[in-house]
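Hey all, quick one. A colleague (J.T.) asked me to put the adenosine-5'-triphosphate job into the tracker so the inputs and the structure tokens live in one place instead of scattered across chat threads. No bug as far as I know, just bookkeeping. Sequence used:
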Amino acid sequence: MTPPLLTLTGLTKSYPGVVANEDVSLTIAHGEVHALLGENGAGKSTLVKMIYGLVTPDAGQMVLNGKAFSPDKPSAARTAGIAMVFQHFSLFGALSVAENIALGMENPPKMRALAQQISKVSDQFGLPLDPSRIVGDLSAGERQRVEIIRCLLQDPKLLIMDEPTSVLTPQEVDILFETLRKLRDAGTSILYISHKLEEIRALCDTATVLRRGNNVGTCVPRDTSARDMAELMVGTRLHDPERRDRPKGATVLDVKNLSAASHSAFGTSLKDVSLSVCKGEILGIGGVAGNGQDELLAALSGEIRTKRGMISLDGRDVGHLPPTSRRALGTLSAPEERLGHAAAPDMSLMENAFLSAATRKALTSLGFANWGKTRGYADEIIARFDVRTPNNQVAARALSGGNLQKFVVGREILQDPDVLVVNQPTWGVDASAAAAIRQALLDMADAGKAVVVISQDLDELLEITDRFCALNEGRLSASVPTTELSVEKIGLMLGGAHDLETANV
Ligand SMILES: Nc1ncnc2c1ncn2[C@@H]1O[C@H](COP(=O)(O)OP(=O)(O)OP(=O)(O)O)[C@@H](O)[C@H]1O
């Protein structure tokens, strides 16, 4: 019998106040697509970082192809045949595809030879990509292809992928899965982290489930329902968000012919965007990343100021007002980028609670921060949104991605806004916590609030929104009642022509 590609035995890693991995053992066979499942903070990233040489285990052993393996840095893991595609891309927007790939290589060949190699690998694995294109002009799906091709040029034995589909359209997911199947057939093993359980069922041969740092079992995803996998992850029954019929009130947010330039050199300017949201309504905005989502949130939150007459709140012109004034008037927002935009990475959760809630939660007294009250608010967010953290003094950057997301969304919802604008509210959040966040958004609408959900997760938009629009190259389509849509139709709408009309659906 051929030995497995990689065996992990008793891997343990602790951080202050938390055991991220405790005595974790698992085996990855050659040519196997192995899913790593677990709720937020379960220890998935920590485990793969140990395999990739970014984190050193406190205890335990790894054996790769029959030999002891203990990489002390990523380049050692790469030399041993391990490649990793991270959730966050590390590409330079101003450089070409080939230049970006060359930057990550120890001994890059001449540009022309590299471009040929890139074209060859992209043909072989069905990942269309022109080596001379500037990365800043690429879609999120194409950027991910750059990262994957960069890995494939190393001819890896094990490819680790952390949440690879969260930025992709359904069509791009299909292309990615075809590529991964080709790789598997060529004998490469894949370790795949995702919270999208139906995708795991479609792709993976086996799954290991982590719960609070421990390996609590394995399953064959094809033979296990998504609900059973989610329940194995959390160890309890899962509650689906409950949607109730509710009356729609008066229009509260009204956007008319909004055009605004992006703040970023590679951003997308907004072009003639019109929308309205009523009290008691959730408006969904779908779109592939980079089509103006960040700019729309920035215009609605006040980070981008607009001309008079473009944005009104309860009939009052607000487009020229900065974020603090919009907050005071009841419009709150949670941007997509949680580290660095929604939260200050090196500040504690308590300080991060203060940053956005000081006014609405009255966290100051006589011009000074009231830390006692602020601590109480941070603890309320942590308890109500089940944020897994040792305490409120922990820096935002030390939280697992999903737990920070729960904190950021919870921090805004608990300020009781009249209008809440969220971008990717459940990005990287596990099934159970995602259901809790969606329920909280539905509860807000039930309480007569207006909610704008910008998301690339089509199932999410179908599940909770009342109306749907597609954002494409900075233009917004007319809205369609969500009940009239299907995932396939939305997919077409998102990838469709610039001037999307309801008729296209
Ligand atoms: N550098 C660090 N310092 C302190 N604690 C950390 C650090 N990295 C991870 N942790 C903690 O270790 C635990 C496991 O985190 P990890 O990121 O591995 O979880 P995860 O399963 O990948 O979660 P998610 O699905 O949310 O990304 C969490 O409680 C997290 O807060």
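Adding what we noticed when we looked at it: Residues 497-505 have pLDDT under 50 and may be disordered. The chain is about 30% helix and 25% strand.
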